[in-house]
Write a structure and sequence with these properties.
- The protein is an all-alpha fold.
- The protein is elongated and about 65 Å long.
- It has helices at residues 9-44, 47-51, 75-84, 98-109.
- The N and C termini lie far apart (70 Å).
- The chain has a domain at 33-109: Cytochrome c-like domain (Cytochrome Bc1 Complex, Chain D, domain 2, Orthogonal Bundle), CATH 1.10.760.10.
- The structure holds heme C (HEC).
- Residues 45-47, 49-51, 60-62, 64, 67, 78, 81-82, 86-90, 92, 96, 104 line the site of heme C.
């Protein structure tokens, strides 16, 4: 009782590879989900109104399309910009949760930003 025999080596290695692949696929799909959730938030919370739906900026606010390449914009800084606002950007602390901030950051950092599905029809 109690002694677990270590499986044959090739079997162990194959199992390890399978586990790692599954883990990576799971991680990638979680990341895609967060990016898409962020895309929807960006549209629904009105970020696109100032920053442009395409993130290219408007007269109201700067472009955000290259923010993922700007080293100064760490997750923490982006997070406080969203929660606390800036000089001309309103704070979103009361309307966006910490998890939603993470999703917005995932969207802003995405290499291939997902396009959100069409907005639901505006209520009458
Ligand atoms: C009323 C217009 C407005 C809205 C709405 C708005 N922003 Fe901004 N945002 C700005 C302005 C203006 C700046 C430039 C810095 C400042 O004045 O705060 C900015 C800066 C930023 C920055 C820093 C980039 C930089 O180069 O300064 C990020 C990141 C950002 N906004 C994300 C968002 C997100 C995410 C949302 C939606 C939750 C949002 N913004 C909604 C106006 C807006």
């Amino acid at each position: 009782m109690g002694s677990v025999r270590f499986p044959e080596k090739p079997f162990a290695i194959l199992t390890l590879i399978a586990l790692c692949t599954a883990q990576a696929a799971y991680g990638a799909s979680r990341k895609k989900e967060a990016e898409m959730a962020g895309a929807v938030l960006f549209r629904d919370k009105g970020c696109g109104f100032c920053h442009g739906a395409d993130l290219k900026g408007t007269r109201k606010a700067p472009a955000l399309e290259d923010i993922r390449k700007e080293k100064g914009w760490t997750d923490d800084k982006i997070s406080s910009q969203i929660l606390d606002g800036g000089q001309k950007m309103p704070p979103f602390r009361d309307s966006i949760s910490d998890d939603e901030v993470k999703e917005l950051i995932a969207f802003l950092r995405a290499k291939h930003r997902p396009v959100p599905p069409p907005a639901p029809a505006t209520p009458q």
